[in-house]
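#lab-general

N.A. 3:47 PM
ok so I finally got the sequence cleaned up, no stray characters, all 570 residues accounted for. can someone with queue access submit it? mine expired

B.Y. 3:52 PM
send it over

N.A. 3:53 PM
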Amino acid sequence: MRPVFTDPPKLAPGDRVAVVSPSFAAPGAFPAVHELAMRRLREEFGLEPVEYPTTRQLGAPARDRAADLMAAFADPGIRAVLTTIGGDDQITVLPYLDPGVVLAGPKPFAGYSDNTNLLNWLWNLGVPSFHGGSTMVHLGRGGALHPVSARSLRAALFGGGDVDLYPAPVFSEDELDWNEPASLGREPPGQPGPGWLWHQPGRVVTGPAWGGNLEILHWNLAANRWIRPPGDYAGCVLLLETSEDLPPGEEVFRMLRNFGERGLLAQFPAVLAGTAKAAAIGHPVPAAERDRYRDDQRAAILRALGAYNPGAMAVFNVDFGHTDPQWVLPYGGPITVDGPARRIIAHYGRGPRHLPALCALCGLRARAGLRRRLELLLVGADTDQRILVADVRDRAVAARFAERSRRLPPPGRAYPQLLAQQRHEDLRLLRPEAGQFADPFAQVRAVGCGTPHPRRVAVVTLHDEPAERLDPRRHRLRVAVQRGPLGEDGGQRVRVVAGQFAGRRLVPEPAGQVVGRAEGAFQRYLLIEQHADEQRQRVAAEQVVGGRFDRHADGHGVPPWCAHHHRLSP
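B.Y. 4:20 PM
back already:
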């Protein structure tokens, strides 16, 4: 049975990424190209590269290269793994890999060519990755990054949604000599792109991608390891591309014939064939011979499909192989091949909303006589949660910004996050005592219900003494929140949290509280308790509050249209 794919988390600017050489350690042979690639990774992508002992070590043993890979996947501070280049012996690294390490901390992986070994190995674990994105070839490209390669790599790492591929009008298959310093500032020579060629475009297929470099896949077949039963690939989109070894058309057919005899080729309703590289460095080839080589390879693939999968749809000259530019494609993730519309759509998934953690609200005056400054703390969605606002339930989160257990107001859902309780405590609301007030702006009567009024401000306020300061240790277990008048100390400030809930209330909380691992669902409107036995952090500031939030904050964070000033009214 085919594995169930779960998308690894997307990246955010500032994240650390592993840069490894599980095949050939090209950075050791061509350090100038490698340094250019690392500089672009920092400046163009905002990521911090982390190298390992074998990243630049030429001839490193397979066991050592595997150890670096496992170290990268085991480190929770590493958010993705990028390979420097391919090679020809990565198949010897696979026996030293530990599936348990990867499954405990899956993260995006990018590579191609000999890295088809690792792409396929991760596919078997249900960990989707990305075909393409060599740091030496694409980030270290002479002249500048190619927009196609850069755009698709960003989509793969940060989440780009659905991206329509298109044929490159100009492509290159002639490498520059990395031994020449001048090659770093020179664009590779280009030629007109051959354009897409469609075969039997009468259907629409969406499925997880599998495949990669044909020679490497054939080596895996020969080793009879890491290839699943044929039925596990049913409905997938097959990616096929060949390397700078330039296998002739007849050899391409024979390799695919072996796939067919294993029952594999019949499983794929759609095939994407990369633009075949028809020249190698130091081996100039006339343009006519290049075209003939690509024609021969296309005929070989169609011949194999005709024998083993006659109903398959195929698209040729898609830019994802050993030519430049290169679309970095989902591997295990879905791709749509729309024959009638002549479209290929890569589905990269959505990344987190990178919202500001804070939106300062300063210098505002409420009509009810609130003459003090407020800090409105709008909580941005945590990039580590990888869930929608409606999915905030019983699960652990890793807070990065201001997402603390007693600072998240309940969303307007049937299963809000409980604010001030841990799993071992008594989960109940307590009635306020007589003498507490339902309206923070009018001291007229005692509270007559067990929950705050949905259109008022649920707050922790000062006692009557003007000089008294808020201390969480003074609020004991099962003591309801006071909702009385504002204190008289005009120099005090407040931190409040706005979230998605019906009353649009402002809920103040001290900064620095810890995340509760398994907080359960409860009532929509909650009172907040403070516990001396739990809070050991300092209170950020003395707290007073007044006002009502006039605008609705979407989810946990600041919506894109959030301005720096919001109007408060009583």
